[in-house]
Amino acid sequence: MLRQAHDAGQRAFGENYLQEALEKQTRLADLDDIEWHFIGGLQSNKTRDVAEHFDWVHSIDREKIARRLSAQRPAERAPLNVCLQLNVSGETSKEGVDLDALPALAEAILALPNLRLRGLMALPAPSDDPETQRRAFRTVATALETLKTRFPEAPLDTLSMGMSGDLEAAIAEGATLVRLGTAIFGSRPPRSPADA
């Protein structure tokens, strides 16, 4: 299905699961113009593979992970594009940095030589109400504007927000990257814990 999407003109592909992504990258190695985005939660033991095989990481929420990615980025590759994951809904079960801690994390990442801070990513709490959706995405857009003012030298041009169920609200609030896997490829089959 990814090859069919590529044939139709799609070039940016997002992946949540590292092992699955690496298998896909191997099978699609002949397509050298794919831009690979890692959008899943990132643990220390996975940073080397992500640093070596991806063009973007959307889920940075800790300085430790960012430092590992920068240190492990191969010298022959361009700096890794990264987005900070903002916990916009304040859910303790969600990954992401709190709004108050965002400027300090951004400042730390801007000092890392092999990362290029591009913007923010968020996964708001699910809602069927368009205004609730828009309010959450507006918070992310406002946070990005605040970062742009504070760090004018940074290429902060990316709002990675919105999925198949709330893409209209995300786009209305300025999303530049949306994740539409379910809309394009259908629902994922259930995963076993061993697949993670």
What keyword list fits this structure?
196 residues; alpha/beta; TIM Barrel; 8 helices; 7 strands; 38% helix; 19% strand; globular
Structure description:
The chain is α/β, with parallel strands linked by helices and 196 residues long. 38% of the residues lie in helices and 19% in strands. Strands 1-2-3-4-5-6-7 form a seven-stranded parallel β-sheet. The radius of gyration is 16 Å and the shape is globular.
Question: Could you outline the blueprint of secondary structure elements for this entry?
Answer:
Blueprint: H1 2-7, E1 12-15, H2 18-27, E2 35-38, H3 47-53, E3 56-60, H4 63-72, E4 80-86, H5 102-110, E5 115-122, H6 130-150, E6 158-163, H7 167-172, E7 177-179, H8 181-185
Parallel strand pairs: 1-2, 2-3, 3-4, 4-5, 5-6, 6-7
DSSP summary, beta strand count? 7
Largest sheet: 7 strands, parallel
Question: In one word, what is the shape?
Answer: globular
At the first level of CATH, what is the class? Answer: Alpha Beta
Low-confidence stretches: none
Mean pLDDT metric:
90
The CATH topology annotation reads as TIM Barrel
Question: At the fourth CATH level, what is the homologous superfamily?
Answer: Alanine racemase
Structural class of the helices, strands and pairings?
alpha/beta
Domain Alanine racemase N-terminal: 2-189
InterPro entries: Ala_racemase_N, PLP-binding_barrel, PyrdxlP_homeostasis
Keywords: Pyridoxal phosphate
Family: Belongs to the pyridoxal phosphate-binding protein YggS/PROSC family.
